[in-house]
Specification:
2 domains; eight-stranded mixed beta sheet; elongated; Rossmann fold; binds cytidine-5'-monophosphate; 19 strands; 421 residues
Length: 421
Amino acid sequence: MTILQSNPGANVLKGKKIIIGICGGIAAYKIPQLVRLLKKRGAIVRVALTEGGAHFVSELALATVSEERVYRKIFPPMESEGVDFTRHISLGEWADALVIAPATANTLARLSAGLCDDMLAAIFLTLRPGKPVLIFPAMDGQMFLSHSVQRNIATLATQGCSIINPESGELASGLCGVGRMPEPEAILRALEEALHETGECSPLYGKKVVITAGPTREKIDDVRFISNYSSGKMGFAIARAAAKRGAIVTLLAGPVHLPTPPGVERLDVESAAEMNAAAEGFFNSCDLFIGAAAVSDYRPATPYEGKMKKDKEEIELALVKNPDILARFGLQKSACQLAVGFALETRTGLESARKKLTEKNLDLIAFNFFDRKTSGFDVDTNILTLIGSNGEITELPQLTKDAAAGKLLDAIEQLCLKDRH
Ligand code: C5P
């Protein structure tokens, strides 16, 4: 299988409505150049300038290069601005992407707290779901590494914002260290990448995607269960990535301690039977079903009511087979639905993964192995080998689960495109 990158020749910025938020950091002086680069690529650019930002870059320069008025206060002084209404909601609805560069400690705090005290904050709050937000913090290195700034960055990241860490180099303080904003060209490339992964560019846009994730728990008695080491990280990463590409994602999650990815509908279940019942409700309506859960193969035949006593030297636990959720979907899916699964095997279990692909009637299976260090359950990285239903194989290197999810979705997108032709 060849994994094509999203059309590299396409100018993803053409006609895109981009808002650039500029805060009060010295790097603000570079933003007019970024505006020019974006305009050259055919983007429509509007600028939201914070009070601090206006100390470092002139409104006139930004209005001139963007050919648009610059937005600052939610309630503009009518006579000088020549407007008679506030646009604090319409700009968030208008934008295809929001770039905040440079982002100061103060604005990171305002945004993470949900304040709405200037146009940039209002745009951030009213941006439509699924639209990329790229935040480029730039400040003194100590300030950047402070607990408060890191906490606010972490909050914004869990809300789905892409935080692009500052670079090392000369700082306005005269010191050398981490804190520099990347150059306008690099900001442009990051924005292009984010737009590639999102919205109308993806064949997954608007598709109904159901993903199972995490372990299941099979009750032995009222206080004990059979389960496995699955953390749900892979399935959650896929859900996050699919939502970013504009899919309508439902995540059927076993018992895990992970936050719900932004824009994803999550249904919590405990046992395989519950996961199966929840999944069945989507079998007819979904476009794509991804089984990333480590569903328990067996469950105790008759869970004990109450707490089992340890009064016997030996007990026998009768187990019965659980429904194979993915196989049930795969074997009954229509020609326009796709089924994708995982096969957690030993390091050499490629053949077994292939067998599962065929037996469950899948379009793609991701083979991985379990070493508790680099791949499989519980860890933050994975090493996937993708096997297509036509036998094509793509070996991926060790990647973070987020990156592996991106590669898996790239491969699924190719299947969607094939279906269209
Ligand atoms: O357990 P097995 O290796 O067969 O799992 C392969 C794939 O099938 C995985 O994608 C898993 O999520 C799915 N599966 C399932 N229901 C089961 C067992 C596995 O959906 N009962």
